[in-house]
Write a structure and sequence with these properties.
Keywords: Signal. This protein is α/β, with parallel strands linked by helices and about 500 residues long. Helices cover about 20% and strands about 25% of the residues. The protein has 10 helices and 22 strands. It has helices at about 1-20, 25-30, 120-130, 150-165, 205-225, 260-270, 275-280, 320-325, 340-345, 380-385; strands at about 25, 55, 65, 90-95, 135-140, 175-180, 235, 240-245, 290-295, 310, 350-360, 360, 375, 400-405, 425-430, 435-440, 450-460, 465-470, 475-480, 485-495, 505, 510. The strands form 5 sheets. The protein has an 8-stranded parallel barrel with strand order 4-5-6-8-9-10-11-14. It is elongated and about 80 Å long. The chain starts with a helix and ends with a strand. About 45% of the residues are buried.
């Protein structure tokens, strides 16, 4: 009798605690909570059109929907997957050239995301989404002084300054610039400083090309020194601003005497040693420290002018039968893997290391390099790449990690809309037992992409109350007998790992 009484008291306590839980709207748990434009419904003001996702219709593609329609994504703390993750600074790479019809010359070259990157409301939504997902900052893919990409980066700077800065290097989020090397072919705004030029270098060759690029990059450096590097929100390491270089790899040879890219960067390194003097006039002659220049891949560590290196997602080819499963996370691969990059980093102590996380790559809808593919395997590539550094950074933190990318819809690497892990959720009532199941629509669906499962109770199907959290499993049961008398609509929600799309079952009706 005493035991039965205790059980009853435990059940009563559970029921009372469940009844006291805070309510949440069903729409909050299922609606689009990203900065991306949704596939339908009421769109925010900065979205000029819907984005329905992107599909690769070629036979044999493992994950045909490579950019999912925007949905409800997990905001679980991304740092928690890394060894000493609280010390790792995680930045997402931003593409800043997306625009709507009539708002930019290059609109026809880009996938239609529905928004204009160079817009205050777009930037505000993206900053808030970054913060919600616990991402520390943004890496701005930048095409030069006075470009729309430069203006978009400054909008990000101003929004962070206004809302989330406590002082120098105390902003959440921070940002830095990645110079887009191919953009040196085009003219940008000139600083007017002797030895610099905003002129484009397209069509030049040999020594004339090298001289043009040197003057152009000097212009880049002075403009960044004047408008970006002195800002509280711009990332510095040991008092030195960090700038990445996405390489231009053609026209002149990579190494050796002039004309060569090696010689270009030797000249730029000399220029950067005294920007207050070389940049000559306000606002470009500030003393913001000598910039740290970070180059691509393991070879970037060996560059004569290098202060560090970052990894960038590599793609083996265009044939789904041969290329899509080369995940470039661990060997073997036909190109440098993330594993090999970390091995190179271990041999270059003292230089900046930027690891990488990426969901995959698919350029089926791009206007260039069409049909290159690295399949995302229903979110497995995202989780594998995100945690690959744990093998190399066990007792110390990986210093920096770059998410590739926040919003490159052209090459299908974006995580902005959320990553589909190929699960849906079903739930049904049998007697007094709730039975739920994660239903896989693809052989690559994996519990490694699932954080946990939540169970909700509702009286009206709209206002829900969380009643339990259970570990990630493909199926499970839950005793409904503990619920109070009445009619209940019970929902089961799969919560993904960070940036994975959450999924909700329909209501399972139970009457007691």
């Amino acid at each position: 009798m005493k035991k039965a009484c205790c059980v009853a008291l435990v059940c009563l306590g559970l029921v009372l605690s469940l009844a006291a839980g805070a309510q949440v709207k069903l729409s909050e748990l299922t609606g689009n909570n990203t900065s991306a434009c949704a596939a339908g419904g009421k769109l925010p003001g900065y979205c000029k059109q819907a984005f329905a996702g992107q599909t690769d219709t070629r036979p044999g593609v493992a994950t045909p929907v490579f950019d999912a329609p925007a949905g409800n994504v997990s905001d679980e703390d991304i740092h928690g997957y890394l060894n000493q993750g609280g010390k790792t600074k995680i930045f997402a790479n931003f593409m800043l050239g997306f625009c709507t019809w009539g708002s930019g010359h290059w609109c026809h070259r880009n996938v239609r995301t529905g928004y204009n990157s160079n817009d205050d409301a777009t930037v505000a939504a993206q900053v808030e989404d970054l913060r919600r997902r616990h991402i520390d900052g943004a890496i701005m893919s930048w095409e030069g002084y006075g470009t729309s990409e430069d203006e978009a980066a400054l909008r990000f700077q101003r929004y962070a300054n206004k809302h989330y800065c406590k002082g120098a290097q105390q902003c959440d989020p921070m940002y830095l610039i990645m110079i887009d090397g191919p953009s040196w072919a085009y003219s940008v705004k000139s600083t007017g400083i002797p030895g610099t030029s905003g002129a484009g270098c397209g069509g030049k060759n040999g020594g004339a090309y090298e001289d043009c690029v040197i003057a152009h990059v000097r212009n880049d450096m002075c403009s960044m020194n004047g408008t970006h590097w002195g800002n509280d929100a711009y990332l510095k390491e040991n008092g030195r601003p960090v700038v990445m270089v996405f390489p231009e790899e053609g026209v002149i040879r990579p190494w050796g005497p002039a004309p060569s890219w090696e010689d270009v960067w030797v000249h730029i390194a000399e220029w950067n040693r005294d920007l207050p003097h070389n940049c000559g006039k306000a606002p470009y002659n500030q003393n913001n420290g000598v910039p740290l220049v970070v180059f691509e891949h393991g070879g970037g560590f060996m560059h004569r002018a290098s202060d560090g290196a970052y990894y960038w997602v590599q793609v083996a080819g265009t044939d789904p039968a041969k290329s899509q499963y080369v995940f470039n996370v661990s060997s073997p691969s036909t190109v440098e893997t993330l594993e090999q990059f970390y091995q190179s980093a271990q041999k270059n102590a003292g230089k900046m290391v930027w690891g990488a996380a990426f969901k995959g790559f698919n350029s089926a809808q791009a206007a260039w390099g069409t049909n290159r593919i690295l399949d995302q395997a229903c979110g497995q590539v995202w989780m594998q790449s995100l945690t690959e550094g744990n093998r190399f950074y066990r007792d110390e933190a990986l210093p920096f990690l770059q998410v590739i990318t926040w919003n490159d819809y052209n090459e299908g690497t974006e995580i902005e809309t959320g990553i589909d892990n190929c699960f849906t959720v079903s739930a049904e009532v049998k007697g007094t037992v709730l039975e739920w199941k994660l239903n896989a629509s693809n052989e690559f669906a994996s519990l490694s992409t699932v954080s946990h499962v939540e169970i909700y109770d509702s009286n009206d199907g709209e206002n829900l109350r969380l009643i339990d959290k259970v570990p990630a499993e493909r199926s499970g049961t839950w005793d409904l007998g503990v619920l109070p008398a009445g009619t209940h609509r019970v929902f089961v929600r799969m919560v993904g790992k960070n940036s994975i799309l959450n999924r909700m079952s329909g209501p399972a009706v139970f009457t007691k």
